[in-house]
């Protein structure tokens, strides 16, 4: 009897341990952006300088190694880049024309816009340790005016949202994280949808619940929409690479490449909440 | 002393995962150094100690993330226990055997994480999870074991990790 009683006791204790752990997982799931508790914030702020030093050192070594290995390919690459620059210059001219038209129309409608006047510049100092989620640590926190839920962007496009803040650091949930959801719209056709991350380790996005009859093609631009209530409208989210019908047959799913290069971001802008004006 | 040394090793592995290893990604994934250490320890020390350090290492990783406390703890507990089950069944000095065990146990750990994420409502297709994370990480870990297992083995029996049993 004794050995089976010992085995049963061990099994019972193991079940209790697993049950408590699963309970802890559910209790600590991040439902909304938060300020970190004092202990966690203290740990983050202490570790941040070491993390930042390692991050910058590795980045420097990688840049040096890339330079050495790429010397043989520099000429061809330079030519390709020059052609790309020329194409981009043409695109910039087109966008400037659109911007001027947009400004005139908005003035006509007495619509006031702001373009990130109170953003905080922050450097990326680390990433999440696993391969499932997509999060980055930045070197600005509560002391610099970063708040939980603040939107994070780069000049190229949307990066994500601040999920946790300590005094001197913050954790940013990238739009490629599977927990992320962004209200978006296809620029060319004004078709709305929700952009979800896929896997943190993979830089791809899925825009779901797109109307089945929407004419969306590869290369179309997706921007944040004014329906989300979280992200300011008009920020580039990604470019369509593939269009598929959903299994239900009711909607389409668009596969996007993020506008911001989330694998290589080094500096980001954290948008501070804009105070409502008297008008 | 072994306890403190192993904790320091886990902490260093975690720090490297958050910083340096991002630049050493292959096929979009980086190796799981904490899991590697847990599996090595399990192979050499058996299931009880493997499970204990798996839980501890996973818990450290969860605290470093700040959310889903227990997610990595449970998966690495399973991994450490599974690695420990082979302690008396395999030739522990063989690099190839260690690499195969690392690969197989990494698959188990990845599967546990995936199932827990599903239970939390985080929907990732099985194909994406297997082909983009679980399998590549297992292969990467297996290849790294060729580099590091011999050092860990020597440290455990003759070096800084040598000490009293669990």
Automatic annotation (TrEMBL), chain A:
Per the record, the gene is: mreC
Classification via InterPro entries: Cell/Rod_1, Cell/Rod_MreC_2, MreC, MreC_beta-barrel_core
Q: Per the UniProt entry, what is one GO biological process?
A: regulation of cell shape
Q: Which organism is it from?
A: Ammonifex degensii
The keyword Coiled coil is annotated on this UniProt entry: yes
Q: What does this protein do?
A: Involved in formation and maintenance of cell shape.
GO CC field: plasma membrane
* Coiled coil location: 78-108
Q: What UniProt keywords are attached to this protein's entry?
A: Cell shape, Coiled coil
Every copy of the Rod shape-determining protein MreC beta-barrel core domain together lies at 124-271
Q: Does the keyword Cytoplasm apply?
A: no
Can you tell me which family this protein belongs to?
Answer: Belongs to the MreC family.
The cross-references to Pfam families, in alphabetical order and at most eight, read: MreC
Instruction: Indicate what this protein is called per its UniProt record.
Output: Cell shape-determining protein MreC
């Amino acid at each position: 009897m004794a050995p089976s009683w010992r085995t049963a006791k061990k099994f019972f204790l193991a079940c209790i341990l697993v049950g408590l752990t699963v309970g802890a997982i559910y209790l600590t799931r991040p439902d909304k952006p938060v300020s970190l508790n004092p202990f966690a914030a203290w740990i983050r702020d202490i570790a941040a300088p070491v993390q930042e030093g390692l991050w910058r050192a590795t980045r420097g070594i990688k840049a040096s190694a890339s330079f050495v290995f790429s010397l043989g390919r520099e000429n061809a690459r330079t030519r390709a880049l020059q052609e790309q620059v020329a194409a981009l210059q043409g695109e910039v001219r087109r966008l400037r024309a659109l911007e001027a038209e947009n400004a005139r129309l908005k003035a006509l409608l007495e619509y006031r816009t702001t373009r990130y006047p109170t953003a905080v510049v922050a450097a990326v100092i680390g990433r999440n340790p696993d391969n499932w989620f997509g999060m980055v640590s930045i070197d600005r926190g509560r002391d610099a005016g970063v708040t939980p839920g603040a939107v994070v962007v780069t000049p190229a496009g949307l990066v994500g949202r601040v999920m946790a803040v300590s005094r001197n650091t913050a954790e940013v949930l990238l739009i490629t994280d599977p927990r992320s959801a962004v209200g978006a719209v296809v620029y060319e056709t004004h078709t709305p949808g929700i952009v979800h991350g896929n896997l943190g380790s993979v830089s791809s996005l899925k825009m779901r619940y797109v109307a089945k009859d929407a004419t969306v093609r590869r290369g179309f631009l997706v921007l944040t929409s004014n329906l989300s209530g979280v992200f300011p409208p008009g920020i580039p989210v990604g470019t369509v690479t593939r269009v598929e019908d959903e299994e239900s047959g009711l909607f389409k799913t668009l596969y996007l490449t993020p506008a911001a290069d989330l694998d290589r971001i080094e500096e980001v802008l954290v948008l501070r909440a804009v105070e409502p004006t008297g008008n | 002393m072994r306890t403190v040394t192993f904790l320091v090793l886990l902490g260093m592995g975690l720090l490297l995962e958050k910083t340096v290893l991002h630049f050493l990604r292959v096929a979009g994934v980086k190796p799981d150094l904490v899991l590697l250490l847990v599996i090595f320890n399990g192979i050499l020390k058996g299931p009880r100690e493997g499970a204990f350090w798996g839980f501890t290492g996973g818990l450290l990783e969860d605290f470093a993330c700040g959310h889903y406390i227990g997610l990595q703890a449970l998966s690495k507990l399973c991994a450490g226990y599974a690695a420990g089950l082979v302690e008396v069944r395999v030739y522990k000095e063989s690099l190839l055997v260690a690499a195969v065990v690392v690969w197989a146990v990494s698959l188990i750990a990845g599967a546990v994480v995936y199932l827990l994420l599903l239970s939390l409502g985080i929907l990732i297709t099985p194909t994406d999870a297997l082909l983009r994370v679980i399998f590549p990480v297992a292969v990467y870990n297996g290849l790294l074991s060729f580099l590091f297992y011999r050092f860990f083995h020597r440290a455990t029996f003759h070096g800084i990790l040598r000490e009293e049993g669990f």
